Every structure is written in structure tokens, then in C-alpha cells.
Amino acid sequence: MSYEAQNSSAQSHNDNENAPGPITASDHEMLTHIRTHGPRLLQTLQESGASKELPFKLVWTAHPHWPLLPNRNTDRVRISVLDSSFNPPTLAHLALANSQKPGQEGEDGYEAKLLLLSVKNADKTLKPGDASYLQRLQMMGLLSQDVVTRWKVEDGRPNVAIGIIDEPTFVGKSRILKEYFAARLRSSPLQSSGPSTQLTFIVGMDTLERLFSPKYYPPPADNPDKTAEQTMLDVLSRMLSPPPDGDDSFIVCANRANLPSDTTQQAKGESGVDQTLSVAQRMGWMKEDPSDSRITLIDIGKRESRFSSTSVRNSRRRIGSWPGARMNAYAPQISKAESSYIQAGLTSIPGQRIDGRALDEYRIVALETGVAPLANGSARVSIGGRTSVEGNGGGGTEVVAATKLEVESVDEGEGVDGGRVNLTIVPGRKAWCMHLDLVVLADQGNVLDVLFLAARAAVWDTRVPRTKVVEWKARPMGGAVVGGGAAKDVGGKEKGKDADRMDVDDTEQPTSGFDTRQLNKAVDFELPDYWDEGEPLEGSEKWPVCVTLNLVPPIHFLDASSREESAVPLKFLLIYSFEKDGKGDKTERPVLRGMRFIGPGEVKAEEVKGMVESGKKYAQETFKALNQKLASEDSRRGRAGRKMST
């Protein structure tokens, strides 16, 4: 591989140059490499505590001979080291990575840059909700595409590497990296004699304050009379001194906006800014001439200096719970870099998802019926995370559905109750009206599919009360009215004034003298047994299911999480019901009831047919699994078996 030197601007603070770039083919290759080798390297590093192996690993390098450059002999390689938790990377990290040591701008800048992730931090430990180390490594890979270096490889990538280290202190990191690079450069085929390395650690002011806090430097066991401050000064002197006595390392520190006061810091047992700088000046590590200083201060820009990973995480949580963001499924909830990262994983071979699922794999689905005692049918469905169905509270998408039957008067002659099957009570007069309510308790993605599942489960669980019709009888001519009210002669003066005749129409005349029929009319109903559970709602088995195909060309995937949804340009909703043909065939056949595209993305017309077929297969699997679970719920609750339509 050939490499070429290119002059480039060492630092820029304008928004265009700090904006993340698009994902390229080489970036896909890099992310695949990190996903493949990162887990093994992390495990090896964390298990190396008892071995003599150095606790440092290179996860990815821009080229095999990094940090050396082909066709360029040098007796010293200057490497900038940006050590951080990267949880997540921000524009402040990018500004730090692209910063230069005063007096070393342009052609006199760093030969190579290292993004370093510490898996052991003196102050920080992994907390619930934090990005995993593998996720951070991949975000560091995306960050590396925007790092600027003087020398670039043939395909335009900078001379950058990504590494992991299991050492909490900077003085320890300096020693480990010096030893590692000395061995790596001695074995490099590019130069017969290995050059020396000079490390410059790029830090923020808060990190510099911790570096000068004596509490992180316990006295050695063999010299208990030595104070922590003396120990700190000794180890820092070794780190910041030139060879052969020291590591020959430097520190470049970025000024930070909104720093706490020295009084606040000292109350926490930490050095304040003024105290830190005073110690550095007293030891001769900071001088008026930056080119002659081991510790120098730089400005990375007022805007960039205000960014922090903590504020980004807090903002992300607030945006995730913002109601307006869920009303618009395509509100910009994640950055372009995070969206590109998600899409790169989905379109890689094989597809990679944040939670490790396959592209056609659903999260765990939990279902429970009979959750609302006052409803005629109810169900709760959750998908993903630890939900309240499992007794542990939020974390996934959760929907509760309930049906309620109420008596409704029906206008006679309009036929509005003709399709209500077993919802009719008094033909032409009264019927059950079913109300279906759905409540979204939590939305962590794929809420439309869950809404359909919950609705089908609640309708399945619905029981229609059994009723008994109350009939009223009346003679067409003469005699008395039977069935209610006082007996009255049809021809008497009281005719037409009997309020108790209710719905009996006694004005209808017989068609002939031989017509001796009585008029029988159903006018009301009663519940023969209040405690009777009722009968299943006829037709409930025809309630459809919904399958959402999330499209990231050229692939589609199922059950998107909320973060994945934010990176998806187009959704394809397919709604299927499954019905028997009524000719003795017991197989439910899929019927496409509706489909819809949602989102600004585009799809080719010739691809739609294939996606419809895929959606039909997924819908059949969902329908079958849902019916099995609903039957299991009926059995659990001791409900009568369901008579399915034929």
C-alpha cells in the first residue's frame, strides 16, 4: 500500500468542518472489523490482570504499520493521545482530537493520533443505560473519520488508530504506551532501527485537575512516611521529564467553560484550577513559552468547550420522553453520526443490530388477558425490555386494550344492526355497541404492531352477555291488551290513552275476518343469569395483525427499537387477517386488508411485491404464535373453549 503526504489544516472550529461526515465503504469495513475483533480484545484485556502482558490493545489502525509512515524515515514519532470514556463522543472530543500543541502547527504537527478508551477509570464505572464498551469503540470509529492529520493513507483516511487500555491513571498509561510502542516500532519492517516515541495526552481541564489531585497517589507501601503530594510530584516528574530519565510525555489541556470554583473542587478533595496551574508552574512544567512547556493550555472554541458527554446523555433522555417526538416518528432524536452508525450495522453482512438480534427477530413479547375486571375483554401486551407484565416496570413498548359493551337503541328499518352477528339483543330495536380503547403505556419502538396485537387479544377475550327477550302480546281487535298495563277494550274511550301499551301496535287491522292471530313483539330483554360469563364474540378470530417492515435499502428488518426507528427513512405497514374459506377447509388463508408507507424514504415499485410476500410470511408466523398464546391464556384462566368459525 502506498501512502502520500498531504498538508491539511490542523484545527478548525467552524460548524461545517466539525460536522460528522457520511458513512463510506471504508467506514463500513472499519466498523465490521471493530464488531468482529472488539469483543475478543476487550475480554483478553480484562483477563490480563494476572499475566505479564501489557494491558493495552490496538483495536483498529488506519494501516498495518501504524504509527509509522512508509517512505518516511524518522528518529521520533509524535503521537497525540485522546483518552476518554467516549460515552458518547461529542464535538468537544472532535475539537480536542484535531487540536495542536502550540509551536507544532502545520508540518511540525503530530505524525499519528490515537483514540484511547480506558476500561478502568479512577472515577467512573459503568452505570445502567451507559453505552457498552463495544458500542463506544464503534462510535470512536465514526469519530475517527473526521480527525485531521498531516499524513493520510492512499484512500484518504487519516493516520489514526483506536486502542483500549486497562489502567486508571495517566502516569500508568504513559509508561504502558511508551513500552508498547518501543516494542512495536523495533519490530517494524519499515525502519531498521526503531524510532523513539513522544506522547502528548490531550485532556480537558477537569481531567488535568484530577491529574494534580494527591488523593489519586497513595504513598508506596515500602515508604509510609512519604506523603501523597510527594508521591504525586515524583510520578508526574517521571512522566513529564525528557529521556533518558523520564517518559518524555506532554499534556495539552483545553480550557473549559463553566468550570466550578476552586472552593467547590477543594470541598470534594480535588485541586481547583488555580491550584493546579500553580503547582504546574512551580514545578517548571508550565512556562511563558509554550514551545518550552510540558503542559500547555489551548482554546478549542467557546461553543465546543461547553459540550460534555453527561449533558448529551441527559438531553438524549429528555428528547426520548418528549411527547412531540413520538407524535412525529421522524423527529430528529439522534445525531447524523448515530443514525449512520445504526444504518451501517443494519446493512452490513451479516446485519448487526444494537441489541444483537437478527434482522427478522422480535424482542420478547409478553401477553396477559383479563387485566381490566370491569371490561368485557382486556389484554396487556409488551415487547422488549423489562415491562410491568414481568413485574419490573418500563423499558419496552407496552399497550393495554379493553372492550366495553353498552346497550344502544337501533333505528328500525335502517339495517344498521344487520352485521353485528351476536351483538343483536332485540332485533330492530336494541343491540350491543362495543367500544375498544387502547392506551400506550410505553413506546420504545414498533408501537403499531403492538397496538394491533393488543387489540386482537382484547377482542378475543371479549365475552358477550347472554340475554333473554321479553315479548308483549296484543289482540288485533276487541278484547283486552295482554302483557302489561290495565285491560282496556280496544273500542273503549280509553283507547290511545293507555301509556302501558308501550311498543304494541294495536292499530294494525286483520287482513280478513278469518285472521285470528295475536301480535307478538319483542320489546325488551333481561339477563337470565347475572353471573354467566357470556359467549365469545363471533368474528373476533378475523381481527387482523400488523407487520411493520423497516426499510433501510437494500434490507428490511422487523421490530425496530426507538433508536432504530429514528434512523429508518421508510416504514412499510402490512395488515393481514386470516380467514377460512367456508368450504370445509380448516386452514386460515391470509387476506391483505391494508398497506401503507410512512416516512420520507423511497422504494422501487418492482420491490413492493417481494416485500408484500415477506410481510405475509411474517404475519402468518405472528398470527400463529398469537393464537397459541391466547389459547394458553384461556386455559390458564379456566375459560370455556372457543368455537371457531368455519
Provide a concise account of the structure shown.
The chain is of the alpha+beta class. The chain has helices at 15-18, 25-46, 91-97, 133-144, 170-186, 205-211, 228-240, 262-267, 273-282, 309-320, 323-327, 336-347, 447-461, 562-566, 605-636; strands spanning 3-5, 56-61, 76-84, 112-118, 151-153, 160-165, 196-204, 250-254, 295-298, 365-369, 377-383, 397-409, 424-426, 430-442, 463-464, 468-474, 519-526, 535-536, 545-552, 555-557, 570-579, 589-598.
From the structure above, extract its key features.
Rossmann fold; ATP hydrolysis activity; Ribosomal Protein S5, domain 2; 7-stranded mixed β-sheet; 15 helices; 5-stranded antiparallel β-sheet; disordered N terminus; 646 residues; nicotinamide-nucleotide adenylyltransferase activity; 2 domains; alpha+beta; 22% strand
Gyration radius from CA atoms, angstroms = 37 Å
CATH architecture field of the largest domain? 3-Layer(aba) Sandwich
Counted beta strands: 22
| Distance separating the two termini | 70 Å
Number of domains: 2
* Main β-sheet description: 7 strands, mixed
SS-derived structural category: alpha+beta
Helix content: 25-40%
Biggest sheet, spatial arrangement of strands: 2-6-4-3-7-8-9
Say what the CATH topology of the largest domain is. Rossmann fold
Low-confidence stretches: 1-21, 259-266, 320-332, 386-394, 412-419, 479-507
Mean pLDDT: 77
Write down the CATH class of the largest domain: Alpha Beta
> Which range does the strand content fall in?
15-25%
CATH homologous superfamily grouping of the largest domain: HUPs
Query: What general outline do the C-alpha atoms trace?
Result: elongated
Number of helices: 15
InterPro entries: ExoRNase_PH_dom2_sf, PNPase/RNase_PH_dom_sf, Ribosomal_Su5_D2-typ_SF, Rossmann-like_a/b/a_fold
GO molecular function: ATP hydrolysis activity; nicotinamide-nucleotide adenylyltransferase activity
Organism: Coprinopsis cinerea (strain Okayama-7 / 130 / ATCC MYA-4618 / FGSC 9003)
Keywords: Nucleotidyltransferase, Transferase
